[in-house]
Design brief:
With about 450 residues, the protein is an alpha+beta fold. The chain is built from 18 helices and ten strands. The chain has a single domain, classed as Cytochrome P450 (Cytochrome p450). A five-stranded mixed β-sheet has the order 1-2-8-5-3, with helices on both faces. Strands 4-10-9 form a three-stranded antiparallel β-sheet. α7 packs antiparallel against α12 and α12 packs parallel to α16. The radius of gyration is 22 Å and the shape is globular. It starts with a helix and ends with a helix.
Length: about 450
């Protein structure tokens, strides 16, 4: 389609809002016209739209540093390396990069040392206890939305995901309203990922929008050291390195805060997409209602098709080659999760929901390698429990036409950032089962 190619040739992925609602034709353009790796001319970013190539970067932290993971070329390095090795410049300037105090931006050996401290956070026992809480919470939240007009993102998805991670970590019930108020202004979390898209002041408030969480979780961990409880925060407060030394409490607080913030956002976005897909596809809804064992397969397809994080970044420590393209040292590498998860070389009919897809788990929506999502099993459990209870208590999921238009002509709005993929709102009605009306 020459017309499409002409249109996308001038698109700046980082700033062009014309592809926010539907970026997938642009992803196809990149793969077909530019190849799985392409150095775009505006910022010199290596855009990776191929899954095989993205996996190489995820699995090679010695070549591809995570120092710029959330913001890519903004600010990047203040100068280009003189030769083919940017390692010294990265080590010199990484402390000034956004979110430096979080492990998501660290490389080995520092990353390995601290990541090892978190291996006991999501034990089978804790996850089982937390799942029991999920079943009760799902019913409490559904009582507020069944058989009435509801905006699913704010009325169910966000509060449910927030309360689940709060319960797992051990956040006091009296404090949860404060966290909910912070998340209600969803621009806050978008600013973490997209500060560079809107402001050059990366060292200012936008770079530390999670400061509220850092201080709060530092206080929790200090309290757990004095008064241990049977929760994840107590475990975190008591971890030590192999030599017996105690890790910096600020780093531990940062990680707890990051788990709390990022984990609930990812789950909430995926829950909303689940309801959108089911509301728009009655046949798919019927299949899942009748065959509950397919819910995990549906979850993986959702994560693949609507990756809640569109991109992650890396920086080339050394001049290297990826997908046959030379990437200069110090360049930002954009791993386009939303594109690689629809790579037709890996996934047959990549734009379709295939509940029998044999390789669904090969998607990269929750990252791979040393930075793979710690709470990914928790997220999967939240989606499964929510869908089970929604199917148990309802007979249909109806998208509100007055807000989103009729079937075949839907209108949805999405988070206006190149980093996240999420619905800003989803109006619907959950039609109750008669037995549910009698029991509630």
């Amino acid at each position: 389609m020459p017309g499409s190619a002409d249109r996308y040739r001038s698109v700046d992925f980082l700033t062009d809002t014309s592809i926010i609602d539907d970026p997938y034709p642009y992803y196809r353009y990149l793969r077909e016209q530019r190849g799985p790796v392409w150095i775009e001319p505006t910022y010199g970013v290596a855009m990776v739209s191929g899954l095989t190539e993205a996996m190489v970067a995820f699995r090679d932290p010695e070549t591809f540093s995570s120092c710029n993971a959330p913001t890519g070329p903004f600010p990047g390095l203040p100068e280009l390396p003189e030769g083919d090795d940017a390692s010294a410049l990265i080590d010199q300037h990484r402390r000034g990069m956004p979110l430096y105090g979080y492990m998501a931006t660290w490389d080995p050996p520092e990353h390995h040392a601290y990541r090892s401290l978190l291996t006991g956070l999501f034990t089978p026992r804790r996850l089982k206890e937390n799942e029991a809480f999920m079943w009760r919470l799902a019913d409490q939240q559904l009582d507020r939305v069944i058989d009435r007009p509801a905006e699913f993102v704010e009325d169910y998805a966000h509060p449910f995901a927030l309360m689940v991670i709060a319960d797992l970590l051990g956040v006091p019930e009296g404090d949860r309203a404060r966290f909910r108020a912070w998340f209600r202004d969803r621009k806050a979390l978008v600013d973490v990922a997209g500060a560079a898209e809107r402001t050059a002041d990366v060292d200012g408030e936008g770079a530390n929008v999670l400061g509220f969480f850092e201080s709060t979780f530092a206080a929790y961990i200090e309290d757990r050291r004095r008064h241990p409880r049977d929760d994840v925060l107590t475990h975190l407060a008591g971890v030590t390195f192999p030599d017996g030394s105690t890790p910096d409490i600020t780093i531990l607080a940062n990680e707890a805060a990051f788990l709390f913030a990022a984990g609930q956002e990812t789950t909430a976005r995926t829950l909303a997409f689940a309801m959108q897909y089911l509301g728009d596809d009655p046949a798919l809804e019927t299949t899942l209602r009748e065959q509950r064992g397919l819910i995990p397969a549906f979850t993986e397809e959702l994560l693949r098709l609507e990756s809640p994080v569109k991109v992650l970044y890396r920086m080339a420590r050394r001049t290297t080659t990826l997908g046959g393209v030379e990437i200069p040292a110090g360049s930002s590498v954009m791993l386009m999760l939303g594109a690689v998860n629809r790579d037709p070389r890996t996934f047959e009919d990549p734009d379709e929901v295939r509940l029998d897809r044999p390789n669904s788990y090969e998607h990269l929506a929750l990252s791979k390698g040393i930075h793979a999502c710690l709470g990914q099993q928790l997220a999967r459990a939240e989606i499964r429990v929510s869908l089970e209870r929604i199917f148990d208590r309802t007979t249909a999921i109806e998208i509100a036409q007055e807000h989103h238009g009729p079937a075949g002509g839907r209108r949805y709005s999405y988070d206006p950032t190149s980093f996240f993929r999420g619905l800003t709102e989803l109006h619907l009605r959950l039609v109750p089962d008669r037995a549910d009306l009698c029991s509630h």
